[in-house]
């Protein structure tokens, strides 16, 4: 006792800067008195020994205790407990003010005082301490006085592979971090150190046996002065781990003796590459309880509410995270839509499903037959595609199987139906009789099955046959003879009920046989209106779920046990993904009370607790061992169930309610509210009990106000009526006991904790309590701050969310290395709880930004959006920061990561205020974020909704309660999106941010791409997309309000204007066509204004372009009638076409011409204008402009190949389709796809192969010996694809309107070697917007030009420039394309006689096809030289402008539409045509 007390007091007094002669401060006296007067509990003999020890040291104690106490005021007894934290050095007081303490590492705070030795001057040791920087790794530092200077020795041992000191010096104040090289202190920097960005020095530790050591020596004659100390953090390169000081700060080691009154704690400075938004300015060494918001506890680390710091802090975290490793490019980012459009897409999907259901109902009414529709995933020419299999059964005997491909696709190859019959069992498989096999064309017996060839009609394939007698069903699979692939209904065979008996058996079987893999066939389910829903992928487990939920007795315990069994049996990876989704949908219905929590069975709380514990551990184990795509589902699933436990709290639910009733003498008789609740708890405790307890607590706290009780129930989805429907109902109202109020509130708050422990897995307080024991110290510090300040309602909300975000990042990294399933489960629950807290705080506080000035609002929203996007990534892809290769399972998060990384630079740039030009740079990133968010929404909708409908309607038929309700089924995906995670928060933020940026000049609300006549008049009609109605003919003047535009569509006949919220490039196909046809084409970027146009739907309006806007006014009846006059005549005229005459068909002349034999002046032409122009400019352009070498497959070659004897059958069918089927077809698109498929069947002659290769060699495009074997097949496939593009949908409709007979179009093919471009561009030498001939306009993208001409999502860098370059270029749009295409090889370009005609914009109608598929890479613009290097940007813009001038000049001064690229400092022209 004597030794401990003496050392403790001496240590405290020395650290306070006082000598032994100084008086004892009051805190020390009080602490010592507490030790003396309150001995620990012990036996009598122990107490005698205790008092003897006191007597032995009485004299010394008396001297200490009698010291005057004028040096300090009395301390709060609650704050004087002797702990390791008491060893924190205290700041001296002066002028009545207290300064914050020196920041010491959290490891040091846990170190016993006896381990610390701090001496003032005169001793050998100036400073010494040691601690653990992580488990199994110790670090120590010691500063000693030597001859001529001071040596700071540091060493580490344990399981560290390597270590680096990242350090700076404190020169005038211990709080400084200064780089030695900037203060003239290079002399103290050891050799082999590395200077880091003029902000720090990095010095490696040297290995000495099993230890790592480093020495810093500061000489007494160090100039300009000896530093006060060294500030540092530690970095372990091998594990990419940073070890900061306490609470995420820096370590500090004193070097010089600190003068009295000069020792001040360090100001917060982020060390590079490390994060932690902790504001030590708000720390105070004195503890006090929290009373209200202005009197926060300061005994713990406080979070900063400084917006500038938070912006910089968050940006550094995001940059360090995404830049963690060198990016691996090649990610495949799919075309996506905005979040807001995605909600409409969900409605569109539901409409399509409703159409399919109505089609089946009509088939039954009209044919008395059944129509089955099932999804089909098949391999198309351009990759994996989604189609349909439709089976029509008439008179219980006739069967027609139809395979329909995805809209716009050619469909799979020639299909074979491999089938069997179920005579007595709808799922049976027996071979048909020989007579039946013979009666079906192209059918043969294959063992126990029959195999029939389907008949191709357009893009569809069909098979029809009739049974002699009605079987119960048929079972079949499909074989693609082209790709040799087998197609099933998901993981199962296609099963069709032929007879009504067989169909009823399928309906009753529901999900079929189930099975360990989620296999087995899911049966047909009927909606509430009686419409059939066919099983989606993953429906194999549905039957087991239906059976389980239809039993007489069901509880949460039974459901959880069954779910654990199903998960355990479901295989990992893609094979089980759909089944896992189905289980999640089931548990989600349960979570939202759309399945019974108790039916005719009493569950002990400890049994439910055990079932929950078993299930959530199973989910955590599967999460740990799954790929990213499955991890997201398991995480969602975990959020549907409680934490549970193996007994403990589960049994306490039963026991503690009785103890409370006994302690407070509450009536245990019938008719009392607490007793009724006790009976319900004893019978079957559910998550509802948390709400009931919270409602009762509100009732008590309000002094018995029933309104508060009812409010809490209703806000959480309960009502007094719902309480009466339990098996043990609660029918009475609670009674208020005024004399017991405080005791009841205390006890029921504790009881609420017990309920949450069992039922609320992601309760944040419980999660923090469970995880604190194994999480790192600085994570725990931030968690404590989050809990303490989660009720913040002022500008401190962002500080809390910043800390939530940082903790989630750190937890995500820790989850990747943690193998203990209990810890994995607990950290996942913590992560879910933090995400929910973030969303709650965001939704509560986000409206507060509306009252800010526009600049402050932009900065605040920028930070909000950064946090929301970052949190969204952590939910789907924790622990993986950097962009990954497209083959990596975590590549799905690439696009949002790229957005976050680009946004981080913008947030950092604005952290001290908005710089000039910030808003225009921010706008394209916001646009890209919205697209990425839309892709996430689209994924959830596409994968979940069909399963929710199938399972939901099936359960509704099976459960006695007839639930789930219809609303919960039809809105399942939408509610999941809006109610979970950060996606809806981010969407709301981006809407606000978009408007704010436009207010700041970040972009106009409107972009007028084509001015029309000018303007347009017509009836305003809304369409979901333009592609699906491009062949429609409107019989009155129409202006379309289009939600989606791809950029490749044709403007429908009768349309006078198009308004969209999509942003196609100014030089996209539809933009050019709109200008060509003088159709008004405008983009509205303001979401609210676009939605506001709905008030004009169905009305006749006039739209007139104004300055950066479109003025829309409703016309009166007279004006509308006047506008309609003559419309039908003009429509008939336009449908009749412009009657453009094509030259007579050229005859075959040669299979392929090398460039040397191409005569651009030859008449009549044997190739298109594309070949003519490129050869001409190649010979006339100045040397500084490069052009690729060319060869051409002329007109007539396609016809020559078609007439070859080997293609006789194909030619006959082709000509019949062109001359007979197409002119009379009501579905021309299907016929067009059929023609394209026939062209791909053409075989090449040896002459064609020989001549093409010879011409390419002569043109130096390839070398001798290339294009052999498989390479030739790739080249010939590309050549046929260009020929086939003659029958593209948009080409057909465009030529039809222009009066061009598509059958008369001839297709030549220009062959070039693809320039592996750094940047590609399209130029119009006359600005199409202003029609100013002295000004050009260009659009530039990263990589190959297909991203631009193919109108990939996002915008290009658009700019205009005077041709004389008398003024700098004016940038009209910054790039936001998600991907760039990269690669080389040969490219085959269309060169028809039906494009580049006077007055007709044919650009983009036909295809250019690379021989080798290009590589896609995700683009991050923060490091893209086109934007970051202003010198390069100016060089490229001026180069493109000069190129436009020179090309136009070489073409006789005629305005040109030019495609080109830039590579290695050189400019290339790859094609040019007259600008229309």
Structural class: alpha+beta
Distance between the termini: 98 Å
Could you give a short account of the major beta sheet?
7 strands, mixed
Numbering strands along the chain, what is their spatial order in the largest sheet? 32-36-35-34-33-37-38
Number of helices: 44
Rg, rounded, reads: 38 Å
Beta-strand content bin: 15-25%
Number of DSSP strands?
52
Helix content class: 25-40%
Shape: globular
The mean pLDDT is 81
Question: Which spans of ≥5 residues are poorly predicted at pLDDT below 50?
Answer: 10-31, 63-123, 259-302, 325-347, 510-520
Task: Give a quick summary of the entry.
The protein has about 1500 residues and is α+β, with helices and mostly antiparallel strands. The chain is built from 44 helices and 52 strands. Helix 10 (about 540-550) crosses helix 27.
Describe the fold and architecture:
This protein is of the alpha+beta class. It has 44 helices and 52 strands. The strands form twelve sheets. It has a seven-stranded mixed beta sheet. It has a seven-stranded mixed beta sheet with strand order 40-52-51-43-44-45-46. A hairpin with a 2-residue loop joins strand 10 (206-208) and strand 11. Mean pLDDT is 81; it is low at 10-31, 63-123, 259-302, 325-347 and 510-520.
Key features of this structure:
1476 residues; alpha+beta; seven-stranded mixed sheet; 44 helices
């Amino acid at each position: 006792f004597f030794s401990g007390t003496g050392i403790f007091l001496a240590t405290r007094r020395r650290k306070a800067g006082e000598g032994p002669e100084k008086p004892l401060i009051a805190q020390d006296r009080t602490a010592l008195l507490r030790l003396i007067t309150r001995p620990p509990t012990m036996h009598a003999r122990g107490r005698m020994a205790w008092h003897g020890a006191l007597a032995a040291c009485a004299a010394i104690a008396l001297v200490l205790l009698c010291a005057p106490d004028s040096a300090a005021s009395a301390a709060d007894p609650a704050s004087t407990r002797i702990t390791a934290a008491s060893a924190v050095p205290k700041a001296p007081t002066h002028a009545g003010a207290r300064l914050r303490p020196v920041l010491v590492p959290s490891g040091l705070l846990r170190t016993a005082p006896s381990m610390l030795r701090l001496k003032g001057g005169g001793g050998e040791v100036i400073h010494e301490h040691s601690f653990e920087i992580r488990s199994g790794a110790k670090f120590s530092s010691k500063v000693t006085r030597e001859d001529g200077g001071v040596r700071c020795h540091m060493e580490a041992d344990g399981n560290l592979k390597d270590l680096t000191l990242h350090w700076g010096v404190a020169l005038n104040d211990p709080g400084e971090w200064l780089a030695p090289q900037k203060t003239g202190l290079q002399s103290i920097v050891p050799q082999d150190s590395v200077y880091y960005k003029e902000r720090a020095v990095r010095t490696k530790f040297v290995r000495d046996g099993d230890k790592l050591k480093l020495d810093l020596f500061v000489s007494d004659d160090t100039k300009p002065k000896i530093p006060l100390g060294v500030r540092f953090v530690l970095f372990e390169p091998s594990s990419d781990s940073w070890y900061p000081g306490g609470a995420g700060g820096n370590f500090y080691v004193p070097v010089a003796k600190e003068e009295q009154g000069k020792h001040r704690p360090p100001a917060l400075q982020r060390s590079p590459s490390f994060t932690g938004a902790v504001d030590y300015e708000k720390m105070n060494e004195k503890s006090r309880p929290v009373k209200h918001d202005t009197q926060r506890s300061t005994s713990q680390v406080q979070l900063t509410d400084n917006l500038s710091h938070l912006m910089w802090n968050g940006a550094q975290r995001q940059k360090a995270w995404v830049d963690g490793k060198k990016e691996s490019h090649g990610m495949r980012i799919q075309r996506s839509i905005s979040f807001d459009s995605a909600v409409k897409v969900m409605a569109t999907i539901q409409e399509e499903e409703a159409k399919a259901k109505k089609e089946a109902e009509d088939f039954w009414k009209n044919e008395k037959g059944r129509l089955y529709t099932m999804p089909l995933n098949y391999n198309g020419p351009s990759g994996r595609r989604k189609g349909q299999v439709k089976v029509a059964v008439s008179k219980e005997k006739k069967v027609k199987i139809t395979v329909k491909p995805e809209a716009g696709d050619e469909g799979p190859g020639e299909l074979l139906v491999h089938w069997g019959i179920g005579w007595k069992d709808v799922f049976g498989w027996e071979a048909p009789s020989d007579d039946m096999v013979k009666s079906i064309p192209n059918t043969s017996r294959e063992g126990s099955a029959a195999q029939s060839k389907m008949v191709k009609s357009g893009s569809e394939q069909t098979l029809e046959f009739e049974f002699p007698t009605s079987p119960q069903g048929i079972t079949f699979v499909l074989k693609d003879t082209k790709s040799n692939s087998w197609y099933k209904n998901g993981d199962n065979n296609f099963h069709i009920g032929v007879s009504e008996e067989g169909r009823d058996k399928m309906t009753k079987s529901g999900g079929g046989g189930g099975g360990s893999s989620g296999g087995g066939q899911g049966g047909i389910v009927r909606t509430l209106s009686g419409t059939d829903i066919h099983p989606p992928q993953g429906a194999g487990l549905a039957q087991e779920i239906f059976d389980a939920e239809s039993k007489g007795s069901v509880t949460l315990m039974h459901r959880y046990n069954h779910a654990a069994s199903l998960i355990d049996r479901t295989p990992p990876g893609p094979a089980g993904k759909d089944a896992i989704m189905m289980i999640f949908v089931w548990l989600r219905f349960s979570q939202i009370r759309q399945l019974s929590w108790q039916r005719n069975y009493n569950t002990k709380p400890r049994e439910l607790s055990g079932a929950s514990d078993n299930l959530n551990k199973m989910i955590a184990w599967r999460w740990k061992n799954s790929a990213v795509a499955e991890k997201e589902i398991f995480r969602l699933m975990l959020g549907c169930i409680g934490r549970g436990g193996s007994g403990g709290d589960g049994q306490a639910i039963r026991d503690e309610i009785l103890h409370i009733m006994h302690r407070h003498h509450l009536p245990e008789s019938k008719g009392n509210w607490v007793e009724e609740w006790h009976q319900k708890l004893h019978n079957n405790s559910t998550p509802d009990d948390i709400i009931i307890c919270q409602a009762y607590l509100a009732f008590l706290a309000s002094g018995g106000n029933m309104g508060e009780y009812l409010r809490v129930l209703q806000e959480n989805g309960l009502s007094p009526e719902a309480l009466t429907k339990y098996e043990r109902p609660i029918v009475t109202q609670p009674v208020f006991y005024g004399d017991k109020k405080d005791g009841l509130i205390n006890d029921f708050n504790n009881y609420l904790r017990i309920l949450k422990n069992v039922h609320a897995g992601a309760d944040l307080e419980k999660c923090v309590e469970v995880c604190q024991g194994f999480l790192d110290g600085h994570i725990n510090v931030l968690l404590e701050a989050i809990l303490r300040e989660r009720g913040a309602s002022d500008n401190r909300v962002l500080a809390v969310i910043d800390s939530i975000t940082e903790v989630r990042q750190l937890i995500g990294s820790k989850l990747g290395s943690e193998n203990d399933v209990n810890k994995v489960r607990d950290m996942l629950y913590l992560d879910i709880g933090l995400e929910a807290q973030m969303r709650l705080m965001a939704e509560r506080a986000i409206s507060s930004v509306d009252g800010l000035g526009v600049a402050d609002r932009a900065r605040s929203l920028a930070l909000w959006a950064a946090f929301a996007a970052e949190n969204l990534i952590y939910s789907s892809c924790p622990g993986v920061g950097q962009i990954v290769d497209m083959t990596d399972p975590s590549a799905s998060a690439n696009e949002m990561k790229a957005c976050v990384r680009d946004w981080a630079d913008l947030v950092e740039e604005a952290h001290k205020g908005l710089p000039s030009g910030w808003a225009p740079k921010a706008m394209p990133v916001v646009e890209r974020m919205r697209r990425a968010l839309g892709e996430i929404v689209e994924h959830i909708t596409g994968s979940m909704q069909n399963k929710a409908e199938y399972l939901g309607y099936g359960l509704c038929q099976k459960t006695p309660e007839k639930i789930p309700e219809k609303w919960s089924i039809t809105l399942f995906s939408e509610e999941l999106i809006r109610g979970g995670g950060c996606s809806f928060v981010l969407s709301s933020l981006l809407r606000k941010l978009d408007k704010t940026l436009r207010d700041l000049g970040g972009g106009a609300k409107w972009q007028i791409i084509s001015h029309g006549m000018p303007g347009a008049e017509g009836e305003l009609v809304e369409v979901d997309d333009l592609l699906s109605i491009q062949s429609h003919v409107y019989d009155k003047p129409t202006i379309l309000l289009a939600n989606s535009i791809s950029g490749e569509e044709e403007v429908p006949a009768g349309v006078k204007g198009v308004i969209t919220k999509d942003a196609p490039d100014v030089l996209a196909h539809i933009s050019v066509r709109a200008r060509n046809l003088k159709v008004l084409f405008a983009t509205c970027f303001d979401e609210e204004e676009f939605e506001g146009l709905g008030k004009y739907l169905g009305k006749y309006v006039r739209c007139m372009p104004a300055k950066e806007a479109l003025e829309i006014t409703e016309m009166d009846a007279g004006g509308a009638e006047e506008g309609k006059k003559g419309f039908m005549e003009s429509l008939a005229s336009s449908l009749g076409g412009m009657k453009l005459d094509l030259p007579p068909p050229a005859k075959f002349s040669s299979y392929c011409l090398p460039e040397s034999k191409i005569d651009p002046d030859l008449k009549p032409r044997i190739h298109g204008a594309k070949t003519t122009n490129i050869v001409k400019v190649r010979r006339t352009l100045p040397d500084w402009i490069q052009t690729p070498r060319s060869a051409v497959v002329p007109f007539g070659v396609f016809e020559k190949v078609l007439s070859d004897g080997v293609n006789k059958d194909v030619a006959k069918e082709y000509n019949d389709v062109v001359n007979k089927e197409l002119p009379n077809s009501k579905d021309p698109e299907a016929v067009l796809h059929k023609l394209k498929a026939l062209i791909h069947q053409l075989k090449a002659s040896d002459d064609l192969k020989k001549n093409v290769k010879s011409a390419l060699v002569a043109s130096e495009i390839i070398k001798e010996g290339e294009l052999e074997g498989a390479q030739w097949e790739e080249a010939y496939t590309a050549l046929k694809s260009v020929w086939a593009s003659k029958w593209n949908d948009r080409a057909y409709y465009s030529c039809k309107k222009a009066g061009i007979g598509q059958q008369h179009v001839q297709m030549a093919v220009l062959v070039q070697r693809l320039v592996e471009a750094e940047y590609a561009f399209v130029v119009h030498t006359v600005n199409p917007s202003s029609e100013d001939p002295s000004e050009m306009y260009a659009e530039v993208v990263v990589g190959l030009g297909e991203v631009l001409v193919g109108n990939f999502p996002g915008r290009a860098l658009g700019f205009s420039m005077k041709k004389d370059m008398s003024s700098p270029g004016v940038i009209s749009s910054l790039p936001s394309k998600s991907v760039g295409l990269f690669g080389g090889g040969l490219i085959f370009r269309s060169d028809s006689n039906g494009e580049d005609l006077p007055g007709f914009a044919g650009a983009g109608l036909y295809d250019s096809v690379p021989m080798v598929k290009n590589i896609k890479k995700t683009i991050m613009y923060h490091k893209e030289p086109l934007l970051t290097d202003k010198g390069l940007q100016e060089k490229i813009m001026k180069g493109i402008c000069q190129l436009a001038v020179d090309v136009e000049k070489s073409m006789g001064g005629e305005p040109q539409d030019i495609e080109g690229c830039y590579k290695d400092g050189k400019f290339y022209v790859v094609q040019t045509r007259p600008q229309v």
